[in-house]
Design goal:
Family: Belongs to the RutC family.
InterPro entries: RidA, RutC-like_sf, YjgF/YER057c/UK114
Helix content: 10-25%
Order of helices and strands: EEEEEHEHEE
Protein name: Rid family detoxifying hydrolase
Radius of gyration: 14 Å
CATH class: Alpha Beta
Number of helices: 2
Pfam families: Ribonuc_L-PSP
CATH topology: 60s Ribosomal Protein L30, Chain: A
Distance between the termini: 15 Å
Strand content: 25-35%
Organism: Tenacibaculum tangerinum
């Protein structure tokens, strides 16, 4: 059985999908981009600010499922320019303990929704 996870503390979906789906003990999140949920505006001041907004959005989705970053077992990071990897990684790393960090892939892509620079999705388990 699946449960749809929705929170006003993260951006509303911009298409036919939900912020996350909980199936049993496993949470599958949709990709988050740097939309500020209070203003509905993109945060693109710097790659660091953009990544922080993405992670804050993901934090809100996890919280709506009564989870934290400690529950995350897998992340997927999509970036538009691999030259930004170290800056994105530095911000991303602030949300995890290195010794228990989730599995992850980071992929450079041609474009992302709304032409942002980074999108992150996660899988978490209770």
């Amino acid at each position: 059985m699946k449960k749809i996870i929705i929170t006003d503390n993260a951006p509303s979906p911009i298409g036919p999908y939900n912020q996350a789906v909980l199936s049993g003990n496993t949470l599958y999140t949709s990709g988050q981009i740097a939309i500020n949920p209070e203003t509905n505006e993109l945060v693109l001041d710097s790659i660091e600010a953009e990544t922080k907004q993405v992670m804050q959005n993901m934090k809100a989705v996890l919280a709506a499922a009564d989870m934290t970053f400690n529950n995350v077992v897998k992340t997927s990071i999509f970036i538009s320019d691999m030259h930004n990897f170290s800056k994105i990684n530095a911000v991303y790393g602030q949300y995890f303990e290195e010794a228990t960090a989730p599995a992850r892939e980071t992929v450079e892509v041609a474009n992302l929704p709304k032409f942002v620079n980074v999108e992150i999705s996660m899988i978490a388990i209770k």
